[in-house]
Amino acid sequence: MAILWLLAALLLMSFVLLPYLRRKRGAVGLVPAGHPDGADPAAYGFVRQEELDVRMPGPDEDLLTVLDLVERTGDHRAAQQLLAGTETEGEVRWQRVQAFAGAASLELQQRPGGVHETPGGQWLRVWRAEQPKDAGGAAVHAEFLVQQAWRTSTPGTDEFRIIMEEARKACGQAALLAPGDPVPYITELSIGRGLAYPQPEYEKLWMNILDRAPHHMGAHLAGLHYWCEKWHGSREQAYAFAEAAAARAPEGSLLAALPLFAVFEHLPEVNLVASFYQSEVVTKAMHGALHAVHAADPDDPVLAHVRHLLVFFLVRAECWAEALDQLLHVDGHVGALPWTLSADPAADFAVYRALAVAGYEANGGSPANLPG
Questions:
Q1: Cβ-count burial of 364 within 10 angstroms (0-12 exposed, 13-18 middle, 19+ buried)?
Q2: Residue 360 near residue 76 (C-beta atoms within 8 A)
Q3: Which residues are bridge partners to 53 per DSSP?
Q4: Considering 181, 224, 288, 326, which has the largest number of Cβ atoms within 10 A of its Cβ?
Q5: How buried is 129 (Cβ within 10 angstroms: 0-12 exposed, 13-18 middle, 19+ buried)?
Q6: Cα 52 to the chain's mean position, in Å?
Q7: What residues contact 56, with CB distance under 8 A and at least 6 apart?
Q8: Are 311 and 327 in contact (CB under 8 A)?
């Protein structure tokens, strides 16, 4: 019986690894470094793995400068000024609030504090204490509490519920300080998922967002999770939510890519069908996302999120040139799905990047004839 289990495990492993080791014409194999058949990502100008930035999906130089300053000095004022100058209607504010909250949460994790040590993220506490009416600080604090709940406790436990209830109150305070800002309501979407809001209550929250920012991609990405079958909905509900958003998306909106995120959220744990990523459902979602990327404003702050997910699907579907095209736009930053689900986002991204380069070159491509 033990031998049968071993054989079954080996067979299963072969199915899982097969998509990575095959290509459309011949086989893509791993070769020693320096081998003439070896594909070198560095030849494409890609950033070294250890230099990949895991904090955000794409460049935001103003945010990076302020983050570095706040983390170095512990002074919140630069963050306060940046958010005060960031429009409430767009996607950038949502990403910056997430980044500041994430920085404070990570600092606290790294330096929890003690008798003779100040806890990390103290600048956020000072910000809230000194500027209790500042809308930016209130929004960051609410998001910080949400991230702390997911990072330090388990859904369903008393600890998780207590932190989330505190975050819910913080969202209400942030919303009062900036009535037209959708960000506090977007933050509450994660609370609603964690605390299992009844669907009517969640839909009421969703309407508050649509009233303020009906085409906000970040809000739709956050809202999609609730409707997935692993939380409080089903595959059909999640697909319906994503497809409805894509159907009403204005020209140039990245909402047309939302069905690809719905597909990603419902991928099987182990896929035994090699052609799954060339199936009609996946292909249709990929084509929608590619169309959205091509039609979007090149400066759209959510564009990098879509490109990163496309890299994952295009490599799995063995669309090497298309994957490489997306990589050329996002390389250097890996703070996006699917890499952020990994314990080592940079390493996971680097594997897919290497596979894309290997597949591209195995099919006759080279740095001299890059896509796009």
A1: exposed
A2: no
A3: 333
A4: 326
A5: exposed
A6: 15
A7: 63, 64, 95, 99, 333, 335, 336
A8: yes
**How large is the average pLDDT for residues 262-284?**
80
Scan for tokens 């919140």, then name that residue: 76
Express the helix, strand and coil content of the chain in percent, nearest 5 each: 65, 0, 35
Q: For residue 198, give every residue at least 6 positions away whose Cβ sits within 8 Å of its Cβ, in sequence order, or none.
A: none
User: Do residues 368 and 324 touch, judged by C-beta distance below 8 A?
Assistant: no
Distance (Å, whole) CA 66 – CA 103: 11
Measured distance CA(332)–CA(53) in Å, rounded? 6
Residue 86: enclosing H or E segment and its boundaries?
Answer: none
Contacts of 71 (CB under 8 A, 6+ apart): 103, 107
Q: What does the pLDDT look like over 11-49, one tens digit per residue?
A: 333 333 334 433 333 334 444 444 444 567 788 899 999
360 CB contacts (<8 Å, ≥6 apart)? 39, 320, 321, 323, 324
d(CA 226, CA 230): 8
Query: CB-hemisphere CA count at 13 Å for 319?
Result: 20
Give the pLDDT of residue 2: 42
Nearest Cα residue to 94 out of 222, 197, 211: 222
Q: What confidence score (pLDDT) does residue 268 get?
A: 81
- CA dist 5 and 18 (Å) reads 20
Average pLDDT estimate for 93-111: 92
Indicate whether 63 pLDDT > 80. yes
Which of 24-33, 45-54, 245-254 has the least mean pLDDT?
24-33
